[in-house]
Amino acid sequence: MSAQLLQFLLSGLTVGAIYALVALGFAIIYNASHVINFAQGEFVMIGGMATVSFIDAGLPLPLSIVLAVGAAALVGLLLEKLAIEPARNASVVTLIIITIGASILLRGLASLAWDKKIHALPAFSGEAPIALGGATLLPQTLWVLGVAAVVLALLWWFFNRTLTGSAILAVSHNRLAAQLMGVSVRRVLLVSFGLSAALGALAGILIAPITFTSWDVGVMLGLKGFAAAILGGLGSGPGAVVGGLALGMIESLGAGYLSSAYKDVFAFLIILAALVVLPNGLFGRRTSERV
Amino acid sequence: MLLLLPLALPNAYTYEVAILVGLNAIVCVGLNLLVGFAGQVSLGHAGFFGLGAYGSAILAARYGWPPLAALAAATAATGALAWLIGRPILRLKGHYLAMATLGFGIIVSIVVANEDRVTGGPDGMSVPPLSVLGTAIAGEKTWYWLVAALLVATVWVALNLIDSPRGRALRALHGSETAAQAIGIDAARHKLSAFVISALLAAAAGALTAHYAGFITPAKASFLHSIELITMVVFGGMASTFGAVVGAAVLTTLPQFLTVFKEYEMVLLGAVMMLTMIFMPRGLVPTLEKALAAARRKPL
Amino acid sequence: MLLRAENLCKRFGGVSALEALDLEIEAGAVHSIIGPNGAGKTTLLNLLCGIYRPEEGRVRIREQSMVGRAPHEFAAAGIGRTFQNLQIFFNMSALENVMAGRWLHERSSLAAALLRLPSLARAERACRAHAQELLAFVGLDAWRDAPSEALPYGALKRLEIARALAAKPALLLLDEPAAGLNPTETLEIDRLIQRLAAAGVTIVLVEHNMKLVMGVSQHVVVLDYGRKLAEGSPDAVRRDPKVIEAYLGVEAS
What we know:
The structure holds three protein chains of three kinds. By secondary structure, chain A is mainly α. Chain A has one domain: ABC transporter involved in vitamin B12 uptake, BtuC (Orthogonal Bundle), CATH 1.10.3470. Helix content of chain A is 73%, strand content 2%. In chain A, α1 (3-33) crosses α6, α2 (40-56) packs across α8 and α10 (237-257) packs across α11. The longest helix of chain A is centred in the N-terminal third of the chain and has 31 residues, at 3-33. In chain B, 75% of the residues lie in helices and 3% in strands. Chain B contains 14 helices and four strands. In chain B, the strands form two sheets. Chain B has a two-stranded antiparallel ribbon with strand order 1-4. Chain B has a two-stranded antiparallel ribbon with strand order 2-3. In chain B, α2 (12-37) packs parallel to α7 (140-163), α2 (12-37) crosses α12 (241-258) and α7 packs across α8. Chain C has helices at 41-48, 71-76, 94-101, 110-115, 118-137, 153-166, 183-198, 210-216, 234-239, 241-248, and strands at residues 3-12, 15-25, 30-34, 56-61, 64-65, 79-81, 171-175, 202-206, 219-224, 227-232. Chain C has a six-stranded mixed sheet with strand order 6-7-8-3-9-10, with helices on both faces. The termini of chain C are far apart. Classes of the chains: A mainly alpha, B mainly alpha, C alpha/beta. Chains in contact: A-B, A-C, B-C. At the A-C interface, loops of A face loops of C.
């Protein structure tokens, strides 16, 4: 394999892992509530920016990360409690507009709490590039891939082996039946939002040393996460991961071999083509209406 | 009401806002046909707006076309494009359709921002003023009457369409696509025509905006603008043509008021959006209509 | 022959919902399709109106093959349908639901619609009058201007029939019209179907209510596990030992 191709694949895998985490956030919330949370990208932003603040305040990196993820999760819980729950009987479109309003609100608050400049996070374990088969690898990339893999394993364990996780899955399949089985949908929604926010924040923190962070970094990342979730098939966890990785690779290869300005155009065209062929995404549930 | 408004407007600035409201309202009425009545979704309508704007701008500025012809051609070409991509895209449903329209909008905004030789790139390009038969349309008052007339015409035609058998067919599709098919309504064809009509209106409004402002930037084709448009429609009340106009009016003027608060503008805008949708989930106009109807039913 | 099904097969993944089904529907008669739940009755109806495409076999309407056609083309060919899970247009009033049903017979042009020409007003008045007649025919005169959400379940079932009739179908497929109705409402549906039959509408009825079925049909088809178990006149089917064993049961002596 040529060194150049390897380089593109590695960077594609890295950014793809980030997209996968953001996409999982979309999938989890969608499964619990059938709502697309357009504020998901802002959790990514909060993760990165909050960590920067904590570090500037003198806290060590690991503690800053934990606090930042916690802060984002808190914002996620607040969003669910204050905005989604009061509107729980509204139509899906209305709920989407509410999350759009939330994303604007959060970005506005971010521009006030912080500023509109670009900030950098220190790389977790230094900047010395590692040579791998002719390509160079940033140590941060290993962090991204490693943490993402661990998170995925933890999520798998959570959804398949714990009661809360099963409850969330139950709600996603049939809300009424789950309620009749004693599942508290309100708690499930809260946990889903908190979890998705934490995932988004983690993604933002992992990638910040490489691509920097700023008050509006959430818009594009959120959008790409959404695209990845759709590509993989909305509501499918594995789909979100595969979609994220695929999107990252496509983007990276497009940037490398075509043009860096048009990498997003290339990626979205591929997604559009994929949707035309597979209208429910790669792993989406093919629902047929019972008439 | 549109006729009385100029009496209330004190200066050129408010005329400008009114004109922008009118142009946004034209897009929203069209978008409402697609979203509120046909029950589809589009998160990329700024793409059509931008194509109409840039198409007309490029034809007029770089190729010397008479502005009216440029406007007509750009609008027609955008409609044709909508027809072409609508066929495969409208087979998608729900969030998948949302993604496809989103992708389309983003593709347009990136192309427009990057092809700087033709479009002037991220800084935009200047656009010659609109002229009909040699006389330029200039001045806020002239534009106001033009836009007001076009808005009234658009609303009138939209209302006619909705009250007609075709409008019923669209609403039937929204009610139950299966049952609509069972009474002979060709779902694909009707969804496509709603899509194309809304694209034509967006493109026309885009071209008019470009000629009015004398300038066009890629921001007008951006994802954020698409979100603004869909928010106006939902905020005003879906499946309500007047709702679309009201939504456009409120959400175009609101940011103007909020600039007073300078850096708090975004925070307040977001808060207003959230609070209104939480407390008036069906949108402004339907909620007001219901309240009025309830008030009328109360015994005096 | 109004409608002919030849060797229809419908499979979902590995599950076979319908196998090798042949059916002939004569104009002017009431045909019933009965069988236990899961026998494939609704699947058959969905195939007959184009909602499902068969894996094998074909549907012919007036000897024209309908292979590959979309549901709205089936409707245009004369098939009308009501649904087991109501598919009422809840975003419209009861009257508008029936008016919508007349879509295939609307004759106004796009220009007339967009410009609100007088010809449109005339067409709309005629459409409204027809719809009101149909509502009266099914006994829903009182609910004319009500939003369809306001109608009780039994009335909604009749509304669906009125909407289907508005298209002037040659063949009307009724999918469990009496399901979920109390005895009074069932009697009303029974009378309505009798009125339709008397008016010469060809009907294919899927029902579990045996009294209803046996009382109104000329021809009965019994399905079991996706295959035709028996067919014939109501009396013949009622006495068929295979049918009794699979579905009807023996009367307690």
